[in-house]
Amino acid sequence: MLSHSLDSLLRCYAVLFLFLLSQSAVWAQSQSYRLGMPEPHTHYYEVTITISDYNKNEAIFELPVWIPGSYMVREYAKNVESVVASSGNKSLKVEKLAKNRWKVSTEGQKNFDLNYRVYAYELSVRTSFLDASHAYINGTSVFMYLVGMAEKPSKLIIEPFKEFKNISTSLKADGSDKWTRLVPNYDVLADSPIEIGNHDILAFKYKGIPHEIALYGGGNYDPKKLVKDFERCVDVCTEVFKENPCENYVFIVHNTQNGGGGLEHLNSTSVLMSRLGYANPDSYRGFLGLIIHEYFHLWNVKRLRPKALGPFDYNQENYTSMLWVAEGITSYYDELLSMRAGYNDHNGYLNTLCGSIGTIENRFGRRVQPVTESSFDAWIKFYRADENSANATVSYYTYGSILGALLDLELLGATNGEKGLDELMRELYLETYKKQNKGYTDEEFKEACEKMAGKKMTDFFEQYVGGTTVPDYNRIFGYAGLELKQETPKNVSLGCSLDDTGGKLLVKNVYKGGAGYADGLNVNDEIIAVNDFRTLSRAQLSEILLDKKENDVLKILVARGGVLLNLSIKLKTDINKVFFFESLNNPSVTQMKIRSRWLMQMP
Question: Is the dihedral of CA 123, 129, 133, 134 positive or negative?
């Protein structure tokens, strides 16, 4: 019996020894990235991936096809050139297996390099860019990863163009060398944009956490005011969750001619701003709303997230029906927190909310596409809008922001003003991210809402979220003692949008329910004449419509594909409605409590 037990024990030790021996080879494997830009005016990055102590005959490298936060396959591999591999002076065979996948035959070489070039000349928050003035890198469009080692740590060694002196990124420096950055794993590398050049850098600390603002492109901003306002944006977001999860944070701001747009990252964001827009109160207010939106993603999306949004599959679409929460509720908060921060007042916020309601309720697509489907189909529809999108789709950003307001009031109404969306987001953050470190499912989000409300919310989620039923706005806004009213314009319309640039009057969109849709007006029709009068501009068409009434018929001559056609279009009253709020007469104490709680401003 003793001999048998000893024999079994020795076999166990042998198995354990072989396992540890095999694992030691894996643990010994290491990798590093080197990024060069010797001729920035050519817009080419030079990338080297160095692999050490590799013990397989083949190495598969992949480049992502999309960037998290922007839900469309963008095919970054189209910009990759000259992929070669070598071990010392020995060239290794490289075979392309798919659009974004390459195989290196190592031929027994444990140490080897993969080299390639990336063309980068599209300045957006989703791509990479390089010219003589600066370098901007989004990891998914530049850095491949070795399959099987994406979770392993590495280093990024940057060889900047000789005239570039500054670097801004949330990746931590390796000691005092600012040009060498530590990479915990590929996900962090992919989610940490890098700005390199001679940009302005502003810095502040929020509760001891370093924050940096990297500003490229110049602009008419006031540095002291900008820092103060960014601190306020950080504060109002943090107050929702009562803690800040980052150790450092970087705002990369590209000041361009027109500006617009942003993208969230793990501990940073990239945004575009009009370089001369800082002096315009409306433009600047919108910019601060964008900063709040992207910073709020520090919690909502980057940590508190739908199940599909991390860990990522970089090779294909990552589907979720919850972008109305991830992006829509974040959009709700960027307006709400702008008010709390003092960048807007109560009336301004309510007017903005009415404008969003008008945008959605005047869009035929909201009767066709549920917001969950809009989320799921973002990959093929939202980022690829066409002339018929208004008739067939709804925005998970805009409608999601409205649902955020309605959900907030449903919770406040059910708890007599004690708990709202702030408490829900905080509770979900603590439970799903901090305690379980996982994403939530659609059902788990619904259950969390019902638990906080103390009631079933089946109608809300089945009809408003998963369906196309028009929300019972007045029941829900009634919790805050408000009534949503609407006016229908009395003017008539063709029911289309027009473009008169270039000396031609062209039809850009034709809206379902409108006169043009009913009587055969098509997108891209060129309007030549109306009622036998040459018509070249929208202004001229508006003058013709001034004295027209519903059911009047216009004779319109159009050019369609080079053929002249005569159309008879029976005019209809403009289908777009205008929405506004009015306070109920003699609202109750509870209604005023809920209104005050909903529209609260921070000191």
Answer: positive
Section 410-431 average pLDDT: 98
Burial class from Cβ neighbours inside 10 Å (0-12, 13-18, 19+) for residue 12 reads exposed
Residue 325 CA, chain-centre distance (Å), reads 12
**Do the beta carbons of residue 146 and residue 51 sit within 8 Å?**
yes
Q: What sign does the CA torsion over 197, 203, 205, 211 have?
A: negative
Pick the last residue of a domain from 184, 210, 238.
Answer: 184
Q: Tokens for 201, please give them.
A: 């850098």
Question: Is residue 81 within a helix (H) or strand (E), and if so which, with residue range?
Answer: strand 80-87
Q: 209 and 326: one domain?
A: no
What is the domain range of residue 562?
Answer: 492-573
pLDDT confidence bin for 488, thresholds 50/70/90: confident
Give the pair of three-digit tokens for residue 449.
Answer: 């809402």
Q: What is the pLDDT of residues 496-530, one digit of tens each?
A: 999 999 899 999 999 999 999 999 999 999 999 99
* Residue pLDDT, tens place only, 361-378: 999 999 999 999 999 999
Domain CATH number, residue 214: 3.30.2010.30
Residues 135, 327, 231, 245, CA torsion sign: negative
Among the listed residues 27, 37, 70, the one whose alpha carbon sits nearest the alpha carbon of residue 142: 37
306 plus 407 within the same structural domain: yes
Residue 311: which residues within 8 A CB-CB, separation 6 or more?
187
Query: CA Rg, the chain, in Å?
Result: 28
Supply angle C-alpha 102, 44, 157, rounded to 5: 75
Do residues 315 and 270 both lie within one domain?
no
CA triple 296-297-299, angle to 5 deg: 85
Q: Could you tell me which residues come within 8 angstroms of residue 308 by beta carbon, excluding any fewer than 6 positions away?
A: 318, 319, 320, 322, 439
- CA within 13 Å, CB half, 210: 13
Is 347 found in the same domain as 245?
Answer: no
- Name 602's Cβ contacts closer than 8 Å, sequence gap at least 6: 235, 236, 239, 340, 341, 342
Q: Do residue 415 and residue 556 come from a single domain?
A: no
9, part of any domain: no
Q: Is the pLDDT of residue 264 over 80?
A: yes
190-203 per-position pLDDT tens digit: 999 999 999 999 99
Q: How many domains does the chain have?
A: 4
Residue 301: both structure tokens together: 């999306």
AA identity, residue 205: K
3-class secondary-structure state, position 58: strand
Q: What gap in Å lies between CA 590 and CA 417, rounded to an integer? A: 7
What mean pLDDT, rounded, does the chain reach?
A: 94
Nearest to 140, CA basis, from 228, 63, 198: 63
Distance CA 343, CA 341 (A): 6
What are 296's two structure tokens?
């709020």
Q: What distance in Å separates the CA atoms of residue 80 and residue 75, rounded to the nearest whole number? A: 10
Residues 260 and 287 sit within 8 Å (Cβ to Cβ):
no
CATH code for the domain of 141? 2.60.40.3650
Q: Using CB atoms within 10 A of its CB, is residue 122 exposed (0-12), middle (13-18) or buried (19+)? A: middle
Q: CA 329, CA 595: separation in Å to the nearest integer? A: 19
Shared domain for 53 and 109, answered yes or no, is yes
Domain assignment present for 290: no
> If residue 557 lies in a helix (H) or strand (E), which one and from where to where?
strand 553-560
SS3 assignment, position 467:
coil
14: in domain: no
